[in-house]
Amino acid sequence: MADRPTSNASTVRSLVLIAVVVAALAAAFAYTAGWLSPGRLTPAKIVNGLAPPGGAALGFRRNHAKGICFTGTFESNGGAATLSKAPMFAQGSYPVTGRFNLATADPKAPDATVRVRGLSLRIVGPDGSEWRTAMIDAPFFPVATPQAFYALLQASADKNDPDAMKNFVAAHPEFGTFVGWAGSAPWTASYAQDRYNSLNSFIFTNAQGQEQPVRWSFVPAAQPEAVSPDQLKAKGPDFLATDITQRVQSAPQRWTLVITAANPGDPTADPSKAWPEDRRKVEAGTLVVNAIEPEADGPCRDLNFDPTVLPSGMHVSDDPFPAARSAAYSVSFNRRTAEDKDYPRHPAGGATP
Ligand code: HEM
């Protein structure tokens, strides 16, 4: 009997402790979900912002939804080994799964209506480590920060404020530079003729531990041929997939990987700022696209080309985009895989892009 008060006190203490732990966990979940700070930008908000007016295409990537998968190899010439100890930079041949794609949330968008094209790669090293990268054919990104990317999505969707885009452009002059590129740069009629750029900056580390900020590009072996928007339109809505399938059937298609090394002081945190053309360049090898794979039910279906999946010898820089992209791609991936029944791999699911 004498020890009952102590026992009661200890029970109360335990219950309080449990309540505190539960409350802390709930607060952590609420914070992560953005409920405690409605103004904070969350990956889910960005992904919601990508949805077209009619809603997201269920089962598809929330951006770059239209595309076509392929397999091939990366033939490393050993040239980049001085910059990075990444296993796929040792001379040799490494398997690749990749995807040509269009920067649109609409998997049925006609090819001639999408200005920006992309190339996504997963290169696997001999030790099983991976280098994933998703690049676009623009020479710089439209905006300087992930926050500005979200502001752009909001401004372009704002039907209530006729000045929304005008105000956005005034506050983000780099977007005007991008619009200038989009309006004047020639289009090609083939994924095979485009150059794809990382735009984001990363840090390479070599075997001696030396670090070097870099960006990279895949430069096509095929000569780019300019075509007019009208010529593109006349080719039909899905000519890019047909074209690349025919090209790869007749011969493997190639791109040279060119690594660009930053000079001290070059901006690494802002992909809207291109580095001067004279920067040191290193040819690291050749991407060889050997086979076009089905998009709907092929090897890219369950792949998330998260740009922070990097082998040893590469890591992210102070560029805020890769982390923001990683978080958004994960939300997109989780949604689209949860919507498996809506994806057109199933007979009831609708058209295959
Ligand atoms: C904050 C900025 C960005 C956001 C929120 C964003 C969002 C997304 C999302 C949600 C996807 C679909 C991912 C999936 O379901 O697997 C995607 C795909 C893609 N993004 Fe981004 N993106 C951003 C910046 C960039 C940049 C800077 C580049 C290139 C330099 C890029 C190139 C691509 C490409 C090529 C794909 C297709 C990947 C694939 O084939 O699966 N994105 N993006």
Task: Describe the protein's architecture and organization.
Residues 22-352 form the Catalase core domain. Its cofactor is heme. It holds the Pfam family Catalase. The active site is at residue 64. With 353 residues, this protein is an alpha+beta fold. The protein has helices at residues 4-33, 43-50, 146-157, 164-171, 173-184, 229-234, 239-250, 321-338; strands at residues 66-76, 92-102, 117-124, 130-136, 196-197, 202-205, 211-220, 253-261, 281-293, 314-316. The chain is 30% helix and 22% strand. Strands 1, 2, 3, 4, 5, 6, 7, 8, 9 and 10 form a ten-stranded antiparallel beta sheet that branches. A hairpin with a 5-residue loop joins β6 and β7 (211-220). The radius of gyration is 23 Å and the shape is globular. The relative contact order is 0.18. The model is unreliable at 348-353 (pLDDT under 50). The protein binds protoporphyrin IX containing FE. Protoporphyrin IX containing FE (HEM) binds at residues 46-47, 50, 61-64, 67, 99, 101, 118, 120, 134-136, 141, 146, 149, 199-200, 271, 304-305, 321, 324-325, 328-329, 332-333, 336.
The span between the termini is: 76 Å
Please write the CATH class name of the domain at 63-139 and 185-319. Mainly Beta
- Using the alpha-carbon principal axes, give the shape: globular
* Portion in helices: 25-40%
Q: Average pLDDT, to the nearest integer? A: 93
| Bound ligand species | protoporphyrin IX containing FE
**What structural category characterises the helix and strand content?**
alpha+beta
CATH architecture term of the domain at 63-139 and 185-319: Beta Barrel
- Classified in CATH, the superfamily of the domain at 63-139 and 185-319 is Catalase core domain
Q: Please tell me how large the radius of gyration is.
A: 23 Å
